[in-house]
Amino acid sequence: MSKTTSTGAQHAADSHDLIRVHGARENNLKDVSIEIPKRRLTVFTGVSGSGKSSLVFDTIAAESQRLINETYSAFVQGFMPTLARPEVDVLDGLTTAITVDQQRLGGDPRSTVGTVTDTNAMLRILFSRLGTPHIGSPKAFSFNVASISGAGAVTMERGGQTVKERRSFSIVGGMCPRCEGRGTVNDIDLTQLYDDSKSLAEGAMTIPGYKAGGWNYRLYSESGFFDADKPIRRFTKRELQDFLYREPTRMKIAGINMTYEGLVPRIQKSMLAKDRESMQPHIREFVDRAITFMVCPECEGTRLSEGARSSKIKGISIADACAMQISDLAEWVRALDEPSVGPLLTALRETLDSFVEIGLGYLSLDRSSGTLSGGEAQRTKMIRHLGSSLTDVTYVFDEPTIGLHPHDIQRMNNLLLRLRDKGNTVLVVEHKPETIAIADHVVDLGPGAGTTGGSVCFEGTVEGLRTSDTVTGRHFDDRAGLKDTVRKATGALEIRGANTHNLQGVDVDIPLGVLTVITGVAGSGKSSLVHGSIPVTEGVVSVDQGAIRGSRRSNPATYTGLLEPIRKAFAKVNGVKPALFSANSEGACPTCNGAGVVYTDLAMMAGVATTCEECEGKRFQASVLEYHLGGRDISEVLAMPVTEAEEFFGTGEARTPAAHKILERLSDVGLGYLTLGQPLTTLSGGERQRLKLATHMGEKGGVYILDEPTTGLHLADVEQLLGLLDRLVDSGKSVIVVEHHQAVMAHADWIIDLGPGAGHDGGRIVFEGTPGELIAAGSTITAEHLAAYVGD
Q1: 372 falls in which pLDDT band (50, 70, 90)?
Q2: Residues ≥6 apart with Cβ < 8 Å to 523
């Protein structure tokens, strides 16, 4: 229908074709004003840290979400996350925003691909209706519902009299009673906790931190529950029970009130509850030695009770269905012809077909959601939007091509265009030229990162970007060439009979002393080969994109250990305690407790974070800020970007070699724009991985394993990363990279290509050799795309 009325004038309702942003100042944005066309595909580009996410997610999407939340009743708002209004003067023409980001799906052991996409819920209903023998409601097929029953007397008032009645109830759940629906059981190897031939007095405990004389040791030796001079193997049953499993008990030791608890639960709480990555190396080594994880012997890892596994449809149980590759499950569901559950089967088919269409057909529904990569998690979240009938919605994507082989990027592009063609506004933050090329409109932010970014450098078409003199424009057609000569291997890491996940008995020798790239389409088995078959022993440093455990108080300075030498340098120059220079310790501003902001919860209304008036957001007491190092106080140092801090601690009065070394490593991995005090919670997946890499580079490891280090890297920064990888190899390290970026493939000394497809169509080595040999052979999907990239 025409947008004009019978008189030829435009209808007022059709004049709102733009999203107008005026005066955006969120994070590092410098008064940004832009107009974004609606019902078009707009791509936001710029170097890491230039302000793309601040504009798209923290301004446009955040305000849309806040306005929608305000339409709910005060009661409902009380259960919703509280959102503050972004720092922006005018936001006009917004539509409902649906954000699809790279945040990993919850790592809860009960969360699977099936539960997060509601596919399991549909399967449970299907089996409760059609499964034979019939065992109960959908709850009977859920591994999150335990079977319970009870009986007792109920007292109630009836007709002015108190009446007692006997009542009983029972719920049939599908949870395996042994592993409680987790699929695995863990066991603590007691021989690694203590030497039972010795007594506590002789130092029987071999746990880090439990050495004789320490408080942990005294808690047990002076508890009075057993004789500290008696060898543990001679303990009575009662004494051993108290030593290992006793419930928490308050007691006095050396005049101090303490809580005694059995050794096993104490270890579980103090060590096993922590993220393995965040443990100190000696603790991590102890945990790896003392804890064994094994598949639950009762349910064989299916998480389901025997009853749930016994009910079948055409010989397939719900456990079998969830273990199938999704593309195969879609075929099985398509073959079911049961008019009684027709609408359910239609919805289930559509959801499973969406998995296949989006390139996730190789997953299975019982795959733990915490094991999905950032890109897989993002595509899993897209599933529910693909078949949606909604139009005039704003979809916001954060690098949707992450973790995708060049072969799969075309598929993703088609999906983005399809969402646009349904009449939606699609906003994409992206670095890959293949996706930037399909944009109707491009917004390039920069020119640099952090404080040097936050401005719009270019707005217009892709052709206009190519000819513009911005960093993105200049590097848009960059292509890394093949190296003239490749390094020769100095040895090999032998892998034999690898069969983790979909690997099919893979035998491969990964060369050492060179840059090895392991590639292949998404789901071909790359991560399974690297993380499942290469033992993480002494000398192997594995750096993935997993979340860094840390609150909003954690920042690059605390995470990398950089704050330690800085605090000591301040303390030495000023003759005071180092603890004064920690915002989490003695130096913290008393009003905001060192957070820099005061969080006010307004119940059902949006909570407000206001800058602390006492310290003006500096996080420290005023007296601490009077101490200087090289003319700067501690808050000014934490506000410095890495590049400035590197110069500051490199020379002059502030020269601190220990700090300078860490800052050099942060600069090397392309994080020069981060400020030392930026909260870790604001970092992207790629930034987190590079921060881990900078931390690990100080270790003695001889083999580095990197998982897609180009994630979140601008075209201009990929070159710097290649230089870093070269420096690592030239210094005698072996570098193994799981990667899809053609620039890294072209730069490799050796390529191992897995495939030919994904899931059970993959899991085999389809090529081993140099990049030049791969192109010459031209036998794989990777070879075709690499040849096109280098222009052969």
Answers
A1: confident
A2: 359, 360, 362, 363, 502, 757, 758, 759, 762
Maximum separation of any 2 CA atoms in the chain, in Å: 102
Radius of gyration of the chain (CA): 30
- Alpha carbons 447 and 460: distance in angstroms, whole number: 16
pTM over 0.85: no
Instruction: Name the DSSP class of 546.
Output: P
Q: Exposed, middle or buried, 255 (CB in 10 Å: 0-12/13-18/19+)?
A: exposed
Supply angle C-alpha 333, 339, 341, rounded to 5: 65
First to last CA, the chain: 48
Strand partners, 317: 312
| Percent of the chain's residues with pLDDT above 70 | 95
In this predicted structure, the answer to whether residue 81 has a pLDDT above a threshold of 90 is no
- Alpha-carbon distance of 747 to 725, in angstroms, equals 10
pLDDT value for 310? 96
% residues pLDDT > 90 (the chain): 55
Q: How far is CA 495 from CA 164, 498, 510, 754, in A?
A: 70, 7, 8, 14
Query: What is the rounded average pLDDT for all residues in the chain?
Result: 89
* Contact between 260 and 248 (Cβ < 8 Å): yes
Cα–Cα distance, 477 to 480 (Å, whole number): 10
Smallest CA-to-CA distance from 411 within 365, 367, 465, 354 is with 354
> What are the Cα distances from residue 548, in Å, to 268, 272, 545, 638, 692?
21, 16, 9, 20, 9
Instruction: Enter the tokens of residue 176.
Output: 């395996």
The residue count of the chain comes to 792
pLDDT of 300 over the 90 cut:
yes
Residue among 486, 532, 476, 552 at smallest CA distance from 513 = 486
Q: What is the DSSP letter of 191?
A: G
User: What are φ and ψ of residue 440, in 5° steps?
Assistant: -85, -30
Residue appearing with tokens 């500096």: 618
The residues, any chain, with a CB within 8 Å of residue 726's CB and separated by 6 or more, are: 515, 747
76 vs 332: which has the higher pLDDT: 332
